[in-house]
Amino acid sequence: MYTQGLDQKTGDRTQPGKAESPENLARFQARVDAEEKIEAKDWMPDAYRQTLIRQISQHAHSEVIGMQPEGNWLTRAPTLRRKSILLAKVQDEAGHGLYLYSAAETLGISRERMVDQLLAGKAKYSSIFNYPTLTWADIGAIGWLVDGAAIMNQIPLCRCSYGPYSRAMIRVCKEESFHQRQGYEIMVALCRGNDAQKEMAQDALNRWWWPSLMMFGPSDKDSKHSAQSMAWKIKRFTNDELRQKFVDVTVPQAEFIGLCVPDDDLEFDAESGHYRYGEIDWREFTEILAGNGPCNIERMKTRTEAHENGAWVREAAEANAAKRAARAAA
Amino acid sequence: MSKDWPLYEVFIRAKSGLSHRHAGSVHAADDEMALNHARDVYTRRNEGVSIWVVRSSDIVASDPGDADAFFEPARDKIYRHPTFYDIPDGVENI
Questions:
Q1: Which residue on chain B is closest to A8 by alpha carbon?
Q2: CATH code of the domain made up of B7-80
Q3: What does R_g of chain B's alpha carbons equal in angstroms?
Q4: What pTM was estimated for this model as a whole?
Q5: Which helix (H) or strand (E) holds A18?
Q6: Residue B39 phi/psi, 5° resolution?
Q7: Pairwise CB contact (< 8 Å): A5 & B29
Q8: Which residues have CB under 8 Å from A177's CB, separation 6+?
Q9: Residue A68: half-sphere exposure toward Cβ, Cα within 13 Å
């Protein structure tokens, strides 16, 4: 990942002198069409830059907020093995957030500004993290479904036209597979357990299924950013295409462990080879994005407190660095 | 509200025998913290045996806008490649 600090040296990172002339835009689109990667210091249309800043920073915020629902179970994991695994997974989410903030910074936005936007409630993060984790089975369901949906979304992003984002996603995807498998393993263990454990697994699937489908975003006909992002090769598949892929691979996994997907309209269409699924409740999605989900307020409060409670550590580290630099100079 | 800590670029040697390769970047208050952060962020699965960190502001980079002119001197010197030379059929080990 090239960086902001590196770019500022040239003094013209956005190259305002190079107007967005038809020639420049055409040359840029030709590079994208030829599957060339766009790098941080290359000329790019401002709308491309802003779209990426919005998408990558939201992605980073999602990783950071995403630590909370799972962190909720760290002290209550049923065994030391599960606890170690969950701790490693939550640490990975922090790491993914950092890779992504770095990638976003190459576009000229500071880390500080992104964090401020999140804490001020101006930046969005994935709707899925505004649901509570009520039982241990929710940790299984999150790994299996939420990380499963994330992988479905992120694998095509490895081929995104913007080099730093693409490279960050390759790193994330390498690590994400462990997340999904550990989640499914939790579900398998519960489904092979007693009736109460199996019921707990089914209850978790019931609550996480529809929110997981919503993770792919609005339906294609209502997705305002889709067409342009596809043309820029930021996105490779539409929301509905990815959602369909997710349903197709996940339903058999549920059946394998004897769980029932909570959708009365779900049926396999032999002719197309796809599962047909019921209507998503988009009102719920809209409400959550508007801040009215079950945990929106709690998530932001926890994040804000963590940031404020860490202030003295950041100040102490700066003071220590200044003291050492002064000693070295003396 | 504090300012961002300085940015460091992270280079990792995956195993001995390979060169260090750019992995990403981290913010840190000083050099030692940069090394620790780089280890925590980029080598959670034994991805490296050695890490370099360098202040991003200390890197001098060529400008992609000038790439054509900058790399032009090498462009017409195709005689630097072995395939430029005709060797008669039948000559071996060359």
A1: B57
A2: 3.10.20.520
A3: 21
A4: 0.90
A5: none
A6: -60, -45
A7: no
A8: A151
A9: 23
Contact A3 B33 (CB under 8 A): no
Instruction: State the best of B35, B36, B41 to mutate against chain A, taking most chain A CBs within 10 Å.
Output: B41
What pLDDT was estimated at residue A13? 45
Largest Cα–Cα distance in chain A? Answer: 79
Quote the pLDDT of residue A1. Answer: 33
Query: Model confidence at A20, in pLDDT bands (50, 70, 90)?
Result: confident
Among the partner-chain residues A5, A43, A116, the one whose CB lies closest to the CB of B56 is A5
**What DSSP designation does A162 have?**
B
Q: Which of B30, B41, B57 sits opposite A95 (nearest CB)?
A: B41
CA distance B56 to chain A (A): 5
Question: Tokens 């936007």 map to which residue?
Answer: A117
What's B25's DSSP letter? Answer: E
**How many angstroms separate the CA atoms of A280 and A248, rounded?**
16
Report how far residue A124's alpha carbon sits from residue A132's, in angstroms, rounded to the nearest whole number: 18
Enumerate the H helices of B1-94 as residue ranges.
31-42, 67-75
The whole-angstrom distance between B80's CA and the closest CA on chain A is 27
Instruction: Give domain limits for chain B.
Output: 7-80
CB atoms within 10 A of CB A275: 18
Q: For the beta carbon of residue A195, count every other beta carbon within 10 angstroms.
A: 7
How many Å apart are CA A84 and CA A87, to the nearest integer?
A: 5
Gyration radius of chain A over CA positions: 22
Looking at the DSSP bridge assignments, the partners of residue B45 are none
What pLDDT score was predicted for residue A7?
A: 37
Q: How far apart are CA A216 and CA A226, in angstroms?
A: 12
A106-151 per-position pLDDT tens digit: 999 999 999 999 999 999 999 999 999 999 999 999 999 999 999 9
Structure tokens at A327: 């000693």
ipTM above 0.90, yes or no: no
What's CA A154's distance to the chain center, in Å? 8
Q: Does A320 touch chain B (CB under 8 A)?
A: yes
Beta carbons within 8 Å of A246's beta carbon, 6+ residues apart: A148, A149, A152, A212, A213, A216
Q: Name the residue in chain A with its Cα closest to that of B23.
A: A1
> Residue A18: what pLDDT?
61
